[in-house]
Amino acid sequence: MEGDTKVFQLTAEVVKQNINPLKTIDVWGFNGSAPGPTIQVNQGDRVRVVFENHLPEPTSMHWHGFEDQNQFDGMPGISQEPVKPGGRFVYEFNIHQEGTYFYHSHMAMQEMAGMLGAFIMHPKEPYRPHCDKDFLIHLQEYAVLPNNTVPNTMNMEFNWLLLNGKAGPATTPLIVRLGDRVRIRFVNLGMDHHPMHLHGHTFYTTGTEGGRIPESAWWPGNTVLVGVAQARDVEFVANNPGDWMIHCHLPHHMMNQMSSVAGKMTRTSGTPAGGDMNTGMGMLQGEPGAPLGEDYGPTLGRGLGGVGNSTDTTTTNGPLSQEKAMDAMPGMQHDMGGMQMGQMEADDIAKNANNVPNFPQDAYMEGPMMAMDKMVDRPENYGLRPGWSGFMQGMMTFVRVLPPDKYDEVISRMKQANRHADPYTPILKRS
Ligand SMILES: [Cu+2]
């Protein structure tokens, strides 16, 4: 506070972010994280954001949906001079709105490099009914070329799909006590729309990026489409015990390190129809046309045949084997030490599998071989079914609706862990 003004310091900077036990990338964020910190204020507050640019190029911060003075809208070259490297700009707001808002760089590629964050305006009159838990989930996507740590912001397809900066199974499950009323605020600043689906419950959509919806206009569902530059608040009573998945329902957004697998339609001889997942995504390997080489740029969209291929030969999927399965995960080969590497059971694959049209679909992409329970062994994952982590990728996590004894057990383990910057700090303080 300075007088009657709430003051926040926001510093744009390079951030090293571990998005999955097997992948750390270099992104641009704020105050050491991408997405940046969630700023929370109350309706009626006077707010100052002291913004500093520690990036090597100009930037400008936009306050999305704010009905405030034009001079603080953050349009570079329109409402203000871009903030130069080492520069500073002070934004001032009189908060009269309420709801789930956000801030982001108004330079599009910087936004795709991680420069976004949430800004919650709490209402003067508390929302009814009261929610026991209030979560915010950023939906985000990066395209990280092979052997790179830097997202390619020009790419139109994405191989890392994230919830709050983490890809499954490294995402943080939502821990709730059976009977809690739960609010989840989804914020989407990316290139794709995400249909977010919750298992085992029906929720109501109670708010948008424009604030609270009057109760008479709430609508029920179990999937809510969160479009680009939109926020969706949903609320439900967690009355059904269990570990329930919550995830984007786009099939390619439930995967890590892949988005296109256009292969032959059968594994017997036939017309090769596609490339492997890197060529399918327009990612180039080897010479000529090494990733980011000047002679080739990444192609856009989905590859068929030789699109994006650096040679004239079309790459096809080979017969299923453990080795091939490992080849299919190029970004994961650096450190496989902690993976469980569970074997497929003999009866997991039918004897005639290679003669069945469409085989394989999931057989070599997830499951026992992908499990890494130990690498994501955290208090909030306590008690999940062994091997769970092999079946959770991309934009997936759990709502864990725990009966009181299990809930208390998980909470006490989280307290014992006493972690720096625990995402559950507000809940741990209360319980
Ligand atoms: Cu999605």
From TrEMBL:
CDD domains membership: CuRO_1_2dMco_1, CuRO_D2_2dMcoN_like
Region called Disordered, residue ranges: 300-323
Biased composition, class Polar residues, residue ranges: 309-320
Keywords noted in UniProt: Copper, Metal-binding, Oxidoreductase
Keyword Oxidoreductase (UniProt): yes
Domain Plastocyanin-like, chain residue ranges per copy: 15-125, 158-260
Annotated GO MF terms: copper ion binding; oxidoreductase activity
The UniProt record lists the keyword Nucleotide-binding: no
InterPro entries membership: Cu-oxidase-like_N, Cu-oxidase_C, Cu-oxidase_fam, Cupredoxin
Pfam families xref list: Cu-oxidase_2, Cu-oxidase_3
UniProt-listed PANTHER family: FI03373P-RELATED, MULTI-COPPER OXIDASE
Name under which the protein is recorded: Multicopper oxidase, type 3
Lineage of origin: unclassified sequences, metagenomes, ecological metagenomes
